[in-house]
């Protein structure tokens, strides 16, 4: 159902809530919208204060009902340092940050609703926190402006061409928003970062993590990697050129054949050598075709030689961080024929787990030997690395408490 909440400063909020929602959960939602902490909220329905444990349905709250929100008694003096400027920034960002940090439940809710804001609250950069608060205020203002425009369009002259164009655009945008909401509910994995496909290989006896990319025309190796594998002496410079894709790189030449080991079997492979630090070794479509490879995403393996050998794709925690940098995998072109395009990887965002909420200085726990293991475990749960690092710092390295915060507990 849809209810209207009016604040003490006459701000009007229209919220979609479940009829069986508790008053406490409604206050948590209002905290996100108004930045007024739950402990300082007093909600009135028909002039009577309603308690946190009560359910909206039990109180008789119906669709389009009005609820008043005022600062609770005894909290008015303390709200001075927790108030906000006209641009949405905190009057006293340090006090605001420490106030939020003291409530792990609120931190967990913010992690779920707005991970970027939660990361800023747990971080040490107050300027970044202020910037995010201003951005959120601007977003809310823009949303209210659009709502007012939509209300105005309902009363517009039906023969006004410009008004009808705006109505058409509003209807189209509403369809887009509904499609987005449906995707969040039924296909949330579509918004997750996709980790590219890597497998362990040996090139001329040197172990490497190979980026498997069926969108690349040729198999590519960097100059430094070829030198490390002892193959640079075989470089045929007659195949020099320029690789054009997103940006460009110099093609130094071609290595016509060298042994690669996949699993326990050796295969011949040819390479285009690029003078590029952004990519080490890319296993492209030419060799995928030659060796009858199958990218089996159901079993998460690469089958080579028509199924003669299978090697598992690496998990994110097993891929070096520099490989996960989006700048490390630019698009390239082969030395001959049409341009080829390599896949790109999104910037890695790891997750961590944490310990006792400290809310303040947490030391350099990132250098503890078990820290990366905790990060890897939480990354597998689908959280971004940067966010979980902050959660672990906040919890002084306690993985269970950090996980509870990340899951909104």
TrEMBL record:
* Chief localization: cytoplasm
User: Which ranges carry the Ubiquitin-like domain?
Assistant: 1-70
Q: Which residues form a coiled coil?
A: none
Q: Does the keyword Chloroplast apply?
A: no
What SUPFAM superfamilies does this protein map onto? Answer: Acid proteases (SSF50630), UBA-like (SSF46934), Ubiquitin-like (SSF54236)
GO BP terms in the entry: proteolysis
Organism of provenance: Gossypium raimondii
Its domain of life reads Eukaryota
GO terms assigned for molecular function: aspartic-type endopeptidase activity; polyubiquitin modification-dependent protein binding
Name of the featured protein: DNA damage-inducible protein 1
Location within or outside the cell: Cytoplasm
Q: Which residues form the UBA domain?
A: 369-409
GO cellular component terms, semicolon-separated: cytoplasm
State where composition is biased (Polar residues): 333-355
Q: Which UniProt keywords apply?
A: Aspartyl protease, Cytoplasm, Hydrolase, Protease
What protein family does this chain belong to? Belongs to the DDI1 family.
A Pfam family recorded for this sequence: ubiquitin
Q: Where is this region: Disordered?
A: 331-366
């Amino acid at each position: 159902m849809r209810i209207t909440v009016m604040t003490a400063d006459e701000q009007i909020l229209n919220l979609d809530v479940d009829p069986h929602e508790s008053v406490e959960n409604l206050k948590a939602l209002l905290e996100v919208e108004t930045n007024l902490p739950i402990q300082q909220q007093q909600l009135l329905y028909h002039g009577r204060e309603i308690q946190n444990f009560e359910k909206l349905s039990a109180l008789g709250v119906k669709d389009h009902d009005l609820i008043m929100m005022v600062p609770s008694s005894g909290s008015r003096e303390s709200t001075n340092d927790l108030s906000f400027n006209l641009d949405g920034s905190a009057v006293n960002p340090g006090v605001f940050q420490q106030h939020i940090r003291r409530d792990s439940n609120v931190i967990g809710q913010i992690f779920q609703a707005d991970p970027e804001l939660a990361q800023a609250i747990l971080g040490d950069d107050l300027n970044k926190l202020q910037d995010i608060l201003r951005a959120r205020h601007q977003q809310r203002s823009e949303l209210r402006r659009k709502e007012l425009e939509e209300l105005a369009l309902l009363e517009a002259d039906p023969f006004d061409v410009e008004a009808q164009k705006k109505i058409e655009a509003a209807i189209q945008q509403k369809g887009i928003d509904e499609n987005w909401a449906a995707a969040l509910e039924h296909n949330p994995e579509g918004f997750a970062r996709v980790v590219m496909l890597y497998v362990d290989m040996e090139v001329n006896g040197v172990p490497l993590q190979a980026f498997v990319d069926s969108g690349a025309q040729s198999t590519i190796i960097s100059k430094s990697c070829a030198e490390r594998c002892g193959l640079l002496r075989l470089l045929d410079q007659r195949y020099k050129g320029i690789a054009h894709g997103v940006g460009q790189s110099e093609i130094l030449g071609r290595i016509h054949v060298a042994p690669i080991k996949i699993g326990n079997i050796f295969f011949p492979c040819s390479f285009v050598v690029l003078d590029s630090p952004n990519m080490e070794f890319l296993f492209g479509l030419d060799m995928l075709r030659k060796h009858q490879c199958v990218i089996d995403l159901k079993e998460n393996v690469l089958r080579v030689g028509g199924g003669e050998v299978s090697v598992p794709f690496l998990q994110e925690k097993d891929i070096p961080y520099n490989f996960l940098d989006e700048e490390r995998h630019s698009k390239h072109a082969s030395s001959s024929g049409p341009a080829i395009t390599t896949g790109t990887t999104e910037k890695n965002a790891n997750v961590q787990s944490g310990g006792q909420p400290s809310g303040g200085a947490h030391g350099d726990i990132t250098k503890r030997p078990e820290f990366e293991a905790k990060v890897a475990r939480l990354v597998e749960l689908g959280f971004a690395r940067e966010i979980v690092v902050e959660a672990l710092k906040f919890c002084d390295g306690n993985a269970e408490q950090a996980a509870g915060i990340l899951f909104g507990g």
